[in-house]
Write a structure and sequence with these properties.
The complex is a heterodimer. By secondary structure, chain A is an all-alpha fold. Chain A contains seven helices and no strands. Classes of the chains: A mainly alpha, B alpha/beta.
Chain lengths: ~220, ~260
C-alpha cells in the first residue's frame, strides 16, 4: 500500500508501467513456456540418446563380441556335457555334466537376451575372438581357445564307459581353461556391470569345476 | 497492486537498514515507508537517482521464482520428452529389423507367408517325408535335429533332420554334389566353429549353392557371392522359431534315411 504511494510520489512513469505489467507478464510467460518446452524436449531427447548410447554397447563393442563368442563357446560345453550325461554310468560324471550343461545353457540365455536388449544381432560378422586384442592365432580352424575339434567330438560321441568319462573330463578341462581365459580378458576390457558380473561368475564357477575335474580325473585314471 | 512485486525486492535490503535506523518512526511506515526513504539517503545518490529505481522495478520482475519454475518445467519436460522419445524408439525397433534386412537381399525367397502351408507346418513325424522345395526350408520334420554347431557334413544328410535344425535357428548351407574342393572349402570357412551353422552337399540342386533358414531360401551360382554372408548375418539364430533351442544334442547321421531312435 505504502509502496504505491511512494512510487506514485516519486516518478510518474512507475504507475503506467505497473498497469502494463500483468499483460506483458502473460504474453511473456507463454513465450517463455513454449521456449522451455522446446528446449526441454530437445534436452530430454538428446540426453536420452546420449544416455542410451553411453550405456548400450554397440555392434563392434568388446561386450557384443564377448557375448557372441562365449555363446558359441558355451554351446560346445553343453554339447559335450549332454553326451557325457547320456552315456556315462558314473554318478559323479552324470552330475557334473548336468551341472555344466544346465548352467552354461542358462548363461547363453543371459548373453543372448542382453544382445537382444541392445538391439544387436545374436551373431556377428567378425571372426571369432576379434574383440580380444592379441588373439591372433588363437583361433584354429574357426575354433576358439579350449574348444574341441570335430574329430574330438566324434570320438567323444563314440566313446563308452571309462573312456567316455576320461575323454569328457579331459576335453572339458581344456574347454574351461579357454573359457576362463576369455572371461578374464573381458573383465579387463569392459566395465559393463552385467557383462562383468556374468564373466566373474564364469571365472570362479569354472575354476571350481576345474578342481573337481582334476580330482575326478585322478580318481578315474587311478583305477583304470 | 502487482507493485507488490518490486516491494519484496526492496525489502531484503531495506529491512536491515530499517532495523538499524528506524526506531523512532511509527509502525505503519516502518515496513514500507522506510525503504523508499532510506535508500536514496543511504546511497547518497540524491534525487537524481530516483527515476532509476522505478526502471529497476518494472524490469526487475521476480527472476528468482521464474528461474526456479523454469528449471522445474525444464526438468519435467525433459523427463516427458525422454518418455515420448523412448516410446517412439522402442516401437520403431520392435519391427524386426532382421526381417527387413533379409527382404532386402536380392533373390531371396520368403516362404513364411506362402500359400503352401506344408512349408510352415511344424509337426514332428518319423520316417521319410516329402518337401515341396529342394532343399526344404521348413515343414514337418523328424523329432531329432541334425547337429548344427558349425558342423560340416561331407555327405548328404537326411532332410527330415536338417529341417528341424532350421526350426532351431540354424542356417543350412547346401551345395551341388561335386562342387570343386576349393569352393567347398570357402563355404566350410563360414561354418567351422560357428554355432547355428551346418553344411552339406545335396543331390539334384539346380544351382551351385543354396542357403536355407526357416522359411527363407537363397540360391546363388558362386561361393564368392556376397549375398551368402548377408543371408547368414540376417538370419542365423534370428530366423529361429524356437528361441533358446540348441544346435547340440541332435544327431550327426548322414545318408538319406532319418534316424528314428
Amino acid at each position: 500500500m505504502t509502496v504505491t504511494t511512494e512510487s506514485g510520489a516519486a516518478p510518474a512513469g512507475a504507475v503506467p508501467l505497473g498497469g502494463e505489467a500483468p499483460r506483458r507478464n502473460f504474453t511473456f510467460g507463454v513465450a517463455w513456456l513454449a521456449g522451455l518446452l522446446i528446449v526441454g524436449l530437445l534436452l530430454g531427447a538428446g540426453g536420452a540418446l546420449w544416455a542410451t548410447r553411453a550405456t548400450k554397447p554397440g555392434d563392434a563393442s568388446v561386450e557384443a563380441g564377448f557375448l557372441r563368442d562365449m555363446s558359441t563357446h558355451h554351446a560346445q560345453a553343453v554339447e559335450m556335457s549332454m553326451i557325457a550325461h547320456a552315456g556315462s554310468t558314473d554318478p559323479n560324471i552324470i552330475s557334473l555334466a548336468a551341472d555344466i550343461a544346465l548352467t552354461q545353457h542358462g548363461q547363453i540365455g543371459y548373453m543372448q537376451a542382453w544382445l537382444r536388449d541392445w538391439r544387436l544381432d545374436p551373431t556377428g560378422s567378425e571372426p571369432p575372438m576379434a574383440w580380444m586384442p592379441g588373439s591372433e592365432g588363437s583361433v584354429q580352424n574357426g575354433l576358439m581357445p579350449g574348444m574341441a575339434t570335430p574329430e574330438q567330438m566324434t570320438a567323444l560321441r563314440a566313446a563308452t564307459g571309462k573312456q567316455l568319462d576320461i575323454q569328457f573330463l579331459t576335453l572339458m578341462r581344456q574347454h574351461h581353461l579357454g573359457g576362463i581365459h576369455m572371461a578374464q580378458e573381458i573383465l579387463t576390457l569392459s566395465d559393463n556391470k552385467d557383462v562383468t558380473w556374468l564373466a566373474e561368475t564364469m571365472v570362479t564357477g569354472q575354476q571350481g569345476e576345474l578342481n573337481l575335474i582334476d580330482d575326478l580325473l585322478k580318481k578315474i585314471q587311478g583305477t583304470a | 497492486m502487482s507493485m507488490s512485486t518490486p516491494g519484496p525486492e526492496r525489502v531484503p535490503s531495506t529491512v536491515k537498514v530499517g532495523k538499524t535506523s528506524g526506531q523512532g518512526k511509527p509502525p505503519a511506515s516502518k515496513s514500507a515507508g522506510r525503504p523508499g526513504g532510506n535508500r536514496p539517503a543511504g546511497k547518497g545518490g540524491g534525487k537524481g537517482r530516483k527515476p532509476i529505481t522505478p526502471v529497476k522495478v518494472s524490469g526487475g520482475r521476480n527472476w528468482g521464482p521464474i528461474a526456479v519454475a523454469g528449471v522445474v518445467v525444464l526438468i519435467a519436460v525433459g523427463i516427458i520428452g525422454y518418455g515420448v522419445w523412448a516410446a517412439a524408439r522402442s516401437s520403431n525397433e520392435s519391427s524386426t529389423p532382421w526381417a527387413e534386412r533379409a527382404a532386402a537381399i536380392s533373390g531371396i525367397v520368403n516362404y513364411r507367408e506362402n500359400a503352401d502351408k506344408t512349408i510352415t507346418s511344424r509337426n514332428h513325424k518319423t520316417g521319410s517325408l516329402t518337401y515341396s522345395t529342394n532343399p526344404p526350408v521348413g515343414g514337418d520334420h523328424n523329432p531329432r535335429w541334425e547337429n548344427c554347431t558349425g558342423n560340416v557334413y561331407t555327405e548328404p544328410i537326411p532332410k527330415e533332420h536338417a529341417v528341424h535344425s532350421l526350426e532351431h535357428g540354424a542356417v543350412w548351407i547346401t551345395y551341388k554334389q561335386g562342387l570343386p574342393a576349393d569352393q567347398v572349402e570357402k563355404l566350410a570357412d563360414k561354418v567351422n566353429g560357428q554355432d547355428y551353422m551346418l553344411m552339406s552337399p545335396i543331390v539334384n540342386l539346380d544351382k551351385n549353392v543354396s542357403l536355407q533358414a526357416w522359411g527363407y531360401q537363397l540360391k546363388v551360382d558362386t561361393v564368392d557371392d556376397s549375398r551368402i554372408d548377408d543371408f547368414i548375418k540376417a538370419l542365423r539364430m534370428n530366423a529361429s522359431v524356437e528361441p533358446g533351442a540348441t544346435c547340440s544334442s541332435g544327431v550327426t547321421v548322414t545318408g538319406d534315411t532319418p534316424q528314428d531312435s
